[in-house]
Amino acid sequence: MTPTAEPIIQARAIEKFYGPPEARIQVLAATDLAIYPGEILALLGPSGSGKSTMLRMLSGLASPSGEVLWHGQPVVGPCPNVSIVFQSFALFPWLTVLDNVEAPLKARGIVGTERTKRALRILDSVGLDGFEQAYPKELSGGMKQRVGFARALVVEPEVLFMDEPFSSLDVLTAENLRSELLELWDGKKMPTRAVFIVTHNIEEAVTLADRVVVLGKNPGHIRTDFRIAMPRPREHQDPPFLEAVNYIYRVLTQPDLVPTPAPEPETAPLAAGAARAKYPMMPHARPGGIAGLLELLVDREGRDEIHHLADDLAFEIDDLLPIIEASSLLGYIHVKEGNAEITPEGQRFADAGILRRKELFRVAAERVPLIRQINRALANKSDHSMPSDFFHDLLDEHFSDEETERQLETAVTWGRYAELFDRDSSGRFFIPEEAPQPAGDEVGGR
Amino acid sequence: MAFPQLGRSLIRERSWSVLVDLLVFAAILAGIYAVLATVKYWMGVVTPAAHISRSPAALPAYAFYSLMRMAVAYALSLVFALAYGYIAAYNRRVEMVMIAVLDILQSIPVLSFLPSVMLSMVALFPTRQLGVELGSIVLIFTGQVWNMAFSFYSSLKSIPRELREAALINRFSATQRFVELELPFGAIGLVWNSIVSVAGGWFFLMACEMFVLGNHDFRLPGLGSYLQTASSDGDTAGILWGLTAMITVIVLLDQLLWRPAIAWSEKFKMEQVESATEVTSPILHLLRNSDVSRWVRKRAVEPLWERLTTSPPREAPVPAARPRHRGRIVGAVLLLALAVAVPYLLVKAALLLKGLHSEELAATLRAAGASFGRVAASLGIASLWAIPAGVAIGFNPRLSKVAQPLAQIAASVPATALFPVVLLGLVRLGGGLGVGSIILMLLGTQWYILFNVIAGAMAIPTELREAASVFRFTRWQRWRTLILPGIFPYLVTGLVTASGGAWNASIVAEYFHFQGKTMSTLGLGAQISAATDSGNSQLLLISTMVMAMLVVCVNRLVWRPLYRLAGSRYRLDS
């Protein structure tokens, strides 16, 4: 567990770009990261911070620019002795449980009874005794992930990678599997020397990890990298546990993470050369979610710690963060040191009725560059409509195709709520007939 | 949960087993004899124009020959489709070209391949029957391979990322990846496309077994040539005999081959939970439980599987740099070959077309217009009856239980085999082929629309239908707001397939040897058939090009936008 030991896998200045070379988007800034023997390393971060990309580069699935060393040797293709537990299980549905677990052994040229014996032994240890001949579709989610674990562990990997392995399971099943994993690990019942787990669940990270790395986004980079020295099993109510959770929440919600409204995006250069200039990203939250958060804050006398809010709502950080970001972008809350505090504007919004809310939201949304841009473009055209592709082209220098579409979708949700603009089924943006012009006529309030 | 499944495999069903074993054994013997007989016949002296007996007693042998041709053509198609799909899916540099080529080849009618295929095959084996047979087989092949290749290609492209990564991180060898990931993933698409393809093979069997090429007469013993001979002699009894034999073979194939194949392919579904409705096949069930097949599985299938999926032992797993230059050399050679061949062929084609008169060109365009009109008319007429009927069947489970199998059998009869019967009627009524060919096209195309509409109507959620009756929609309102939008995506799929079928059918529907004379009408299909018959290669080339262009354009300009509309606006899920 000493960080001075030789790392098993070491990444040096790895970075990742997407898109064509002339307009590439950086998803991960040059980053160093090493996996040492004896540790469980948890990688946390908001969606879009390149967690999965990082996992794929460290395991050798994806090729980075920069280099990845395996015991000091550069790797080409997948690392020699690692395996992965996937979020979606990634079992072969046409193979039985036993065949699924034997498949990686076959690839290693292990034959006959030796192979079956090893597979049965590992199935036994993850509690799948008696299910050898079943097909994955006959199993529950938790059982499927057990097969996933068995398949990963059967090759006795030196490093076990896990990509949000518990996030498609229900809470209890996940809890159960986590503690079984820890039992195997702490009881030295698996020959694995290091575990690398990607998660968006802060408590999961603190429960499992010896070391936590938190990523930030736009482009992905390491925000913090710290060790948790508590003995396992860890109690969720212990002060050090809570402290660690709080610390991570604070890091994840630091103000500098919230994109501040850019000065004047219209004047910002949008040429290909500026592709890497940051474009403020819209957090993917719905107006209804924002309203809900504000109402909750009003109930709490206007301020609360964010992780309390998450707990009370039973929200994962990934679900709550966009709502927090959006509220702060709209000027409805202030985020400071892991606390969220409602602003007078936010208070007004929370107190208003539905029509008045829309009106307030319309004003507040004008602060958001993308909303403002769409609105201006539509208002300046005689028929008040524009094809989707126009805005696509505007954004795709800054985001991946997928993210561009999500950005536009969120913009539409907001624009629709504010009755500023809408998008029809063919993808055309337009200003609805009865909508107030952006100049701002009065709509009959309450 | 898992227990019923586990339990089922423990209870051995013995009651039928001995009989089944005998049957399986007999089938294997018969298969071996069939192969030997075929080889003997193929290696024999060439008789390009065999005498076709019209006696019903000759039918079993003819059915056998036709079946062998279809089987070999299908095996060729499968191998080709797997290879083509694989290369296209994994080779970025050639992918776009290969898919475009596939698109165009798909729109070229079988008959247009006829002269080049036939002459080259006969030249390859001038003294053996094999040459003529191979020509016919390759013709059948060109009618069924493209959609299979496309299906495998798109399956490969849609393998989920995490499954791919699971294979990659575990260092599956290429063969292990192929047998344990790629082939299973593509299996369902391949099975369904095989069924469509083989149906297409039956459709063109008559054209592929008996034709005139310039002054050469080709007649191969088979069901197709039997039917053609009977119809050109105007022998009604013979037509009916041939038809019966063909339908029998098709129904048997469906029961003995395709249904078990579909039931077997259920296991390759990507679903994560077990579905309630599964296709079952008693034949497959029996086969799985017979001792012979168990023995074959244990002695042949499993060891082979083991050989294919297991890599040689590796001591120190060292990541080796992959040799990339070899692929690059192959690519460069291929590119060079293309760079030489394409311009050469283009020049040849241009020289050939230079001799074309402007009247011939005008005639071709007029013919194209006529065929286009017929295709549109047949689609329209088919829609008129198939949409209401399909909706009625789809909405009524009891009716669908009766109607669907009947319709399936009706649909499995190749329309070409029915042509003589329909023509008999037409001639008696005094109608010509101009209108008659629309009816002939209709025979082949209406089923695609009907089946898709049934599926679409069944997919409309009951709640929506209940809502429509609660709100007392008028009949017109129901159709406009519920039924038509609900079936739209399915209808588009049906229409696309039907229009492809109609264009294909135009070749045989517009030009027919019947009762000793040739009936034909103005149309692109007739022109292609006539050009083949008379060996007029420039006319054949220009009419094929016009048809391929028409089909590709209609696909791009009409069907693709409709598909997009169906995918975005008229989706019932989400």
Explain what you see.
The complex is a heterodimer of chains A (446) and B (574). By secondary structure, chain A is an alpha/beta fold. Chain A folds into two domains: 9-253, P-loop containing nucleotide triphosphate hydrolases (Rossmann fold); 278-430, Arc Repressor Mutant, subunit A (Orthogonal Bundle). Chain A is 39% helix and 17% strand. Chain A contains 15 helices and 16 strands. Chain A has helices at residues 51-58, 97-107, 112-125, 141-153, 171-186, 202-208, 239-253, 287-299, 306-313, 317-329, 344-351, 354-365, 369-379, 388-395, 401-417, and strands spanning 9-18, 25-35, 40-44, 65-70, 73-74, 82-85, 159-163, 194-198, 211-216, 221-227, 303-305, 333-336, 339-342, 385-386, 422-423, 429-430. In chain A, the strands form four sheets. Chain A has a six-stranded mixed beta sheet, with helices on both faces. A four-stranded antiparallel beta sheet of chain A has the order 2-1-4-5, covered by helices on one side. In chain A, α2 (97-107) crosses α3, α2 packs parallel to α4 and α3 crosses α4 (141-153). Chain A is globular. Chain B is mainly α. Chain B folds into three domains: 14-43 and 282-311, no CATH class; 49-280, Orthogonal Bundle (MetI-like fold); 354-568, Orthogonal Bundle (MetI-like fold). Chain B is built from 22 helices and four strands. Chain B has helices at residues 3-10, 17-43, 59-90, 92-106, 110-124, 129-157, 161-169, 174-203, 205-209, 223-232, 236-265, 282-288, 291-309, 325-354, 358-395, 397-412, 415-429, 433-459, 462-470, 475-509, 524-534, 537-568, and strands at residues 210-213, 216-219, 511-514, 517-520. In chain B, the strands form two sheets. Chain B has a two-stranded antiparallel ribbon with strand order 1-2. A two-stranded antiparallel sheet of chain B has the order 3-4. The longest helix of chain B is centred in the middle third of the chain and has 38 residues, at 358-395. Chain B is globular. Residues 1-13 and 316-321 of chain B have low confidence and may be disordered. At the A-B interface, β6 and α2 of A face α1, α7 and α8 of B.
